[in-house]
Write a structure and sequence with these properties.
3 domains, alpha/beta, D-Maltodextrin-Binding Protein, domain 2, 60s Ribosomal Protein L30, Chain: A
Amino acid sequence: MPKKELRTGVKLLIIIVVLGLLGTAYWAARSGKFSWVTAKKRVATEGKKIDIPKGKGKNIIRAGINTWGGYVPGVYYNSGFAPNENSRFYKEQGILVEFKRFDEVDKMRSAWRNGDIDVMGLVTVDSLPVEIAGLAQDDPKNFMQISWSRGGDAVVGTRAINSAADLAGKKVAVALNTPSHSLFLLWLAAGGIDYGDLNIVGTPSSVQSAQMFKSGAVDCAVVWSPDDEDCIKSVPGSRVVFSTREATHAIADTMVVKGSWAVANQGLLAAFLKGWYKAVAEINGDPGSKAAAAQIFSANFSGIDVGLSTLMIDNCRLASYGDAMQFYGMIPGATMSGDELYTKTGSMFTAAGFNVGSLPPWRSIIDTTALASIGLTGPGYEPEASMKFSPPTQAMEVQPAVAEKGASVNFETGSSVLTIDGKIAIDEYFAPQSKVFAGSRVRIEGNTDSVGSRDLNMQLSHDRAMAVAAYLVSKYGFDQQRFVVVGNGPDKPVASNKTAEGKARNRRTDFALIGE
C-alpha cells in the first residue's frame, strides 16, 4: 500500500476514535452520570498547586445544610441541591456538589459522623464552646465562614421589657446551648446582668421559645426570624427589644469538616470555597443575581416562597472572601474574629454555670489551608466596610439604652489623659462590646465624684468620655459619629461621696448600647 494511502487510513482511524470518545463523554454528561467524569482541574495556591482528586466518586463533595439564608450562595451556584450539568461548581470549578437538607441538629450530626456528608453546616462559632466536646471524637476543623446573622435572631419582649435591666423578676425562654443562648449571654454581658439572677426557662429550640411567648407563658424570648414577627402580631404591645441587626457580629455561621478528610481533599475544598465566594460576590453586588438566588433557594426549600427567601438573605450578611480571611485572622481587621468570639462566649457560658470544660485552642480546631489557597481579589471579595453613622443628636444623650454597664477607666486626678491601665480596661471591655454590637450606637458617659467645682467636673467628665471614644476610633477604626459622648460630672452618683470607697465607685465611665 502506498505511504500516502497509509497516512490517509491512519488519519481516518484517529478521527473515528476521537469522535467516539467525544460521543461517549456527551452521553455521560447528558445521562447525568457525572461521577464518571474525571475532568482535571488545578487550583492556584500560595506558591504551589493543589490537584482536585480524579476518578469515579472522588470529585464530589456532599454538604449538609439547613434552612438558613446563609446557604443561598452554594445552592445558587450549584443550580439546586443535586449534582447537575448546569452547576457552575461543575462547569467552572471541575467538581460535583450535592447539598442535603437537615433542619434537626442531631440528624445532621449523625449524617456527618456516619460519613453520609463530607462538610457540615449548622455550626456557629458563638455556640461552639458548648458543642465542641460532642464533636471532638471526629476531629472537627472549621474551614469556612458562611455568614453573620443580621436580624435573623432576636429578643422579643412584652411592653414591660425595654432593656436587659428590665428582665429582673421576669420569665425568659431561651433555647439552651444554641446561637439563641449565646446571643442572650452577649446581651446580658453588655448590660452587666448576672445570668444566675434571672428566671430562665430552657427550651430545646427557638421555635418552642416563640410558642411559649405567644402563649403568655414567658415575658421574653429569644427567637429566629420570621418567628419574631409572628410573636409581635400574637402578643399586643410586644416588640423586638434587641436583635442581630444591632449585635452584628454575635452569631457567626460556619461549616466544619473532619480533619482527616480535609487533609486528603484540600483540592476539593479549595474548588468548593472558590465557587462559593464567587457566588457571594455576585449576590452581594448585583440585585439581579440576588433575585435569581432567591428563586433558586425557594425552588429547592419546600415551604419557602420567594418573598421569604429574599427576607432570609436580607437577615444575614453573606460572608465575602475578605470577611472570611479576617474572621480566621489571615488579614488584619477591626471586626470580631472567630478566635475572639469563640473565647468570649466560652467564658460567658462558663460564668453562667455551663460546663464547657477545657476548650481546645482556636488554632487547633480550624483548617485554613484551602481558604488561603484560592486568593480571590477584586470587587466583591473585599471585607465588609466599617459601618457608618449619621451625626449623633442631642436626644441620644438621654435615649433609653437596650443595655448599659459601668466600667472603671482609670485617669490621673484632674486629668483626662488615658493611663496604661485605662487603655487595658478599654481593650478588655469597651472594644469587644463595640465589635460585637457594631450596628448599635454607643453612648459613653463620664462621671466624677463630688470633689471640686461642679463646672470643672462637668468638663472633666466629658473630656474623659471623649478620650475613651477617641481611643476606640484611633485603635479600632470605628466611626467617630457612632459614639454619643456625655459628661455627667457628679450628677449621677452610684454611691455616697462621703467615703473614699463611694467616691471611687462614682469615678466611672458608663457604656450604653442605644438604637438610632
